[in-house]
Design goal:
By secondary structure, the chain is of the alpha/beta class. The protein folds into two domains: 6-114 and 233-300, FAD/NAD(P)-binding domain (3-Layer(bba) Sandwich); 131-227, FAD/NAD(P)-binding domain, CATH 3.50.50. Helix content is 26%, strand content 26%. It contains seven helices and 17 strands. It has helices spanning 16-27, 59-72, 135-138, 154-163, 181-188, 234-241, 278-300; strands at 6-12, 32-35, 47-48, 57-58, 76-78, 82-88, 91-96, 101-109, 131-132, 146-150, 169-174, 193-196, 200-205, 209-214, 219-221, 224-227, 265-267. The strands form four sheets. Strands 1, 2, 5, 6, 7, 8 and 17 form a seven-stranded mixed sheet that branches. Strands 9-16-10-11-12 form a five-stranded parallel sheet, with helices on one face. A three-stranded antiparallel sheet has the order 13-14-15, with no helix packed on it. Strand 6 and strand 7 form a beta hairpin. It starts with 5 loop residues before the first strand and ends with a helix.
Amino acid sequence: MNAIPHYDVVILGTGPAGLQAAIHASRKKVSVLVLGKENKSSMYHAHIENFCCIFNVPGDEILSTGRKQAASFGAEFSEADVLSIQQHAEGFELETEDGARIETHALIIATGTQRNRLGVKGEKEFLGKGVSYCVDCDGNFYRGEDVAVIGNESAAVDGALAMTEIARKVHLICDRLDVSDALQKRLESSSIAIHQGATVKAIEGDQAVKSVQLQDGPTIPVGGVFIELGAKGLIQLATRLGIMLDDEMRYIQTDKHQATNIPGIYAAGDVCGPPWQIAKAVGEGCVAGINAATFAKKKKT
């Protein structure tokens, strides 16, 4: 049986916080793996003009340079999304969308924030009354019911698969699938009703959700709607690990070392709250990278 690959520090996120963390952690002579898709960073399509010493430079160019810097110090990169994280005595074990498992002493969460909303009628009105943005948080409320999961990436597919153990019937609604081959095979071999090429027109109900109406398509009777846009996000991962969030359950709480309440887990950037600025993300990434590397070295000895 193949051994599970181990890294001293694993970083979730390839934005400015994640890359800065990778640069500083790697310079501390520990093994570093960075997970995430570069073009998913909110900075990728931006032009930066308010960061010291950089003026009107495309965001993708800055990210590319940061990636090269981190790699020059030994950091490795993978675009696979993380589906789950388990804590054990020696650290943490991560499972990615392609079925790989990775072990690490220290973890840095720098995934940014999920600001995506579906933007359809009924979404705001039924929030908490059948509409949820987190399968892991709210899935058990819909035991034995028909539900819909909306999204085309790993968060939606993994959420839909999880709901097959809870709900009576699961519908996955997506314009197109954008997941690994391994995750797509799991989806296709499941009992999930896949509505590919479909978009949602409205979420309908009275006191609670009753159905989802598709554009140029049928109305699907459901009691719950999970909007899972993008990769596996902050709330889902944090909920499973017991990471302390703010009162509104939106941002990770950290101390001045960017450490969370879970030893070995650090956070940096937008996941820690506003302001949404590259300067803040880079500074927090620096602190998180140094302290995570120091933690990993102590754990090794």
